Amino acid sequence: MRVAIIGAGYVGLVSGACFAEFGVDVRVVDTEVSKVEALREGRIPIYEPGLDKLVADNVRDGRLSFTTDLAEAMEGADAVFLAVGTPSRRGDGHADLSYVFAAAEQVARAAKKPLVLVTKSTVPVGTGRKIKTLLQETRPDIEIDVASNPEFLREGNAIGDFMRPDRVVIGAESERAFETLRRLYRPLYLIETPIVQTGLETAELIKYSANAFLAVKITFINQMADLCEKAGADVHDVARGMGLDGRIGRKFLHAGPGYGGSCFPKDTLALARTAQELGAPATIVEQTIVANEARKEAMADRVITALGGSVAGRTIAVLGLTFKPETDDMRDAPSLVVVPKLAAAGATIRAYDPQPSHARQLMPAATHFAGSAMDAVEEADAVVLLTEWNEFRALSPDRLKAAMKGDIILDLRNAWDPAAFREAGFQYQSIGRP
User: Fold this and answer.
1) What is the pLDDT of residues 288-326, one digit of tens each?
2) Catalytic member of 263, 330, 385, 415
3) Global confidence as pTM
4) Which of 357, 411, 402 lies closest to 380, judged by CA?
5) How many of the other CB atoms lie within 10 Å of CB of 68?
6) How far apart (Å, rounded) are the C-alpha atoms in residues 368 and 365?
7) Residue from 123, 184, 177, 101 nearest 146 by CA
8) Fewer CB atoms inside 10 Å of the end CB: C or N, the chain?
9) Active site residue 18
10) CATH class of domain segment(s) 2-198
11) Could you state, in order of their start, the residue ranges of all structural domains in the chain?
């Protein structure tokens, strides 16, 4: 089989490399010339564990290629995937679908034979129907089926999620579309991956519902952590007691500074706006959005309080800036709220992240980027753990104490052992633990 993927961003690049690994002939097209040139030279524009090798192996074996020419990419393709961005639209929070519709129209104009156009981008319910109308108006002379195949890729584990997914969702209205996608995902049939076949609108809503539910789950345990602090309970034990219930599950019950990333913030906002427009408000999702934004502000206030109510003239080491470990993604990361607020309050910020390429452009200008965690904590009055990279878990409390000027630790990810840090002489605070 042969497919074209429009968009060499996170979703398009990971999906293209993984489909190629399945044995499919994949051509990834992007309008950004420098990105395509970099990919042809083996330089990956994002950090995702294992992706560089997967891309290199499949380019070498002739199954994966990159181009800026859409017509070239579509030559002989059985399916074309839309993997373009759908950011929040300024002003109203709706998903900006301009890139999706523009790409769909370009596909219609370039099509030389019947094919299946698949939305891999996260799009609000009803988008597939609009795409179908657009295609019929643009090219009434050719049959282009529309399908929805939402992605469920976690940054930092995207290849594993594609190769061994919990499920594959296929939304379509023609047997040809279903059959084309079943053929593409045949390796997953062989390992008995559940394949959910639905209509277009249902597939689109599955994606948003899943992300919104996980965001609600994160926000719920964060609020329970606040209650634990007031009541003298331990949120770790609360989460474990909840998670052992098979109806709830233990994943995403980790208290912290709030969710961020490329999906949850924009998808919850888009779902809330769509629900309002359709007259079925998702008030739980609306309140989740409000609570999550407030939580990031509260984390900065927590640091200021721990330092006696003022951080002016104090040096604060911030460990971890990306929204989660194993990615360089800074979109809606808690650090984008916490660090500027501390800097504006007069603190000197010494920051370290294992993947700082994007963070360097987004942090306050006065932020000092250290070359290692130990360099960051040198002579610091306090250490704030914002992202739980594995290398931080192994940091010795005694070494930290010897390097620091102060003795305040704010573990906003509950990654460290409270007893060990208190034994080393620290004033240790975490989230939701007594």
Assistant:
1) 999 999 999 999 999 999 999 999 999 999 999 999 999
2) 263
3) 0.93
4) 402
5) 15
6) 8
7) 177
8) C
9) no
10) alpha beta
11) 2-198
